[in-house]
Amino acid sequence: KTHGPKDRTLTQGLKGDPTYLVVDKDKTLATYGINAVCTHLGCVVPWNPPENKFMYPCHGSQYNNQGKVVRGPAPLSLALVHADVDDGKALFVPWVETDFRTGEDPWWKA
């Protein structure tokens, strides 16, 4: 399957968590993936392509296209992982450095 710019494809990530692969505007895979587990109640947050953001229908939380929380009640942004594809398989590595969206240490590192 080919993916278009700004696509988000849900796959199995670290520890079995649902994780989105991110396709950049130039149709290349971003070097990060986004953990799809909502930081409010732990449910999977669906990607909403027309709105270009993640929108949790049950409680109204919203995250921008990089997973940064923009509307609560979710208290934190979605966790990040490093992402790559090798021989058609998604590979994920824990993200332990600064969260590029907030400039802070990642809350999920603990």
Description:
The chain is mainly β and 110 residues long. It has one domain: Rieske Iron-sulfur Protein (3-layer Sandwich), CATH 2.102.10. 0% of the residues lie in helices and 37% in strands. The chain has a 5-stranded antiparallel β-sheet with strand order 1-2-3-8-9, with no helix packed on it. A 4-stranded antiparallel β-sheet has the order 4-5-6-7, with no helix packed on it. It is globular, with a radius of gyration of 13 Å. It starts with 7 loop residues before the first strand and ends in a 16-residue tail after the last strand. The model has no long low-confidence stretch (mean pLDDT 91). This is plastoquinol--plastocyanin reductase. It holds the Pfam family Rieske. Its EC number is 7.1.1.6. InterPro entries: Rieske_2Fe-2S (IPR017941), Rieske_2Fe-2S_sf (IPR036922), Rieske_Fe-S_prot (IPR014349), Rieske_Fe-S_prot_C (IPR005805). It is found in: Plastid, Chloroplast thylakoid membrane.
Summed up:
With 110 residues, the protein is mainly β. Helices cover 0% and strands 37% of the residues. It has strands spanning 8-12, 18-23, 29-35, 47-48, 53-55, 62-63, 69-71, 80-86, 89-94.
What's the topology here?
Elements: E1 8-12, E2 18-23, E3 29-35, E4 47-48, E5 53-55, E6 62-63, E7 69-71, E8 80-86, E9 89-94
* Annotation field: number of helices: 0
CATH level 1 class label: Mainly Beta
Mean pLDDT: 91
DSSP summary, beta strand count: 9
Classify the fold: give the CATH topology: Rieske Iron-sulfur Protein
Our measurement of the CA-to-CA distance between the termini, rounded to an integer number of angstroms, reads 36 Å
User: Considering the protein shown, what is the CATH homologous superfamily?
Assistant: Rieske [2Fe-2S] iron-sulphur domain
The CATH architecture can be given as 3-layer Sandwich
Order of helices and strands: EEEEEEEEE
Major sheet attributes: 5 strands, antiparallel
Protein name: plastoquinol--plastocyanin reductase
GO molecular function: 2 iron, 2 sulfur cluster binding; metal ion binding; plastoquinol--plastocyanin reductase activity
Pfam families: Rieske
Organism: Cynodon dactylon (Bermuda grass)
